[in-house]
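Feature request disguised as a bug report, sorry. It would help if multi-protein outputs had a clear separator. Right now it looks like this:
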Amino acid sequence: MEMASSDTRERLISAAADLIAASPGEDFSLRAVCDAVGVKMPTLYHFFGSKQGLIDAVVEHGFDLYLGEKAAMESSGDPIQDIRAGWDAHVAFGLTNPGFYTLMYGKVSPGHSPAGQSRANEILKGLTSRAADQGRLAVSPDQAAAHVLVSNIGVTLRQIILAQPDPELSHAVREGVMAAITGTATGQGDALNAAIEVAAAHPHILGATETQLLVEWLGKLSREVS
């Protein structure tokens, strides 16, 4: 009985997700969700309490999908490069799943954020903390993470609103953010730090292993002479 109840709950979430994905940004009918699963309205209210409860469950489902994709990504070994890859993956998820994304990041309530956002934010903060440990940031790890996140969300929502990808915009904003948090945009970083970020941004030129060694050597040299 417990397994059947869990299955019904998941089917209701899946049905709501399908309706949201079919018409991103538009309202959906609870009756349509129930009809898709073959249950009565009281069953839906039993599991979720309200329409908002169902929406919250769909948002969590969206974050589960998003974080599942994040977990499957391989680390380059360089935190700044991993932030770049995470940025691109974030945009790609939003463009592929606009219905989920607009619920995850486009619907805001003052003083409230979905629990799934915290899980995603911790991954980003882990990367900015590693970058700070390497002496790669011109700002605090928290500020760097916030800078990346708000810019990433803005770029993604703009492309969803326009209903077309804009890779040039995304790349330009991404690199502007990378320059800002590493200090290379305003001259806060010296030539060695600038060289580190150039190498990290183009690992294919020297190769991943060689680039990582170069970043480590230049970072050590920068710390010793500063």
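(second protein starts here, but nothing in the output says so)
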Amino acid sequence: MAAMGLTEWAYSLSESLLSDPLPRRWAHSLGVAKRARSLGPIMGDDAELLEAAAVLHDIGYSPTIATTGFHPLDGARFLRDQEKADERVVRLVAHHSCALLEAEERGLRQELEGEFELERPDLVDALLYCDMTTTPDGTQTTPAERLDEIVQRYGPDTIVGRFIQRAAPEIHAASERVEGRLAQVSADGQPM
């Protein structure tokens, strides 16, 4: 990883794990990373970190590394144990998009909490926003449309369906916080 930049490494790794076995998941990851780049004006020195976490957030779905079937945990463990990745990237992947609530549904909350600390709230919000404003095909959407799509795809009574409905208030709140920060930067006359 030292020979290449953080984002270059992240894109390469994510592509190697997702593009062939899960091309739609790869397209989504690229879309989430694109959204992360668009948050550069509010991310400052953490812009590269956010983009790297964004393109890597779903690698735990890769059949080559999925072990528990809970992609935030599988992805974070792979990044930590196999890749010796930046600790902050690992934490963002572990906790992306209200992962603790889904971990609870799966009986894995203690494992996730015990192994991976939460990252700074503004970064957690930013990654959640990027994920929840990107469709499975990588195009931009709204949090409400994304939540509806997830419930329809998985079903309201599945683990993912139940979790995402529980997470909806936090997803909307985090999105509002990020949009508020973007609006503030825009109002201050900074380029967007």
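Even a blank line would do. Unrelated, but nice: Residues 159-187 form the longest helix (29 residues).
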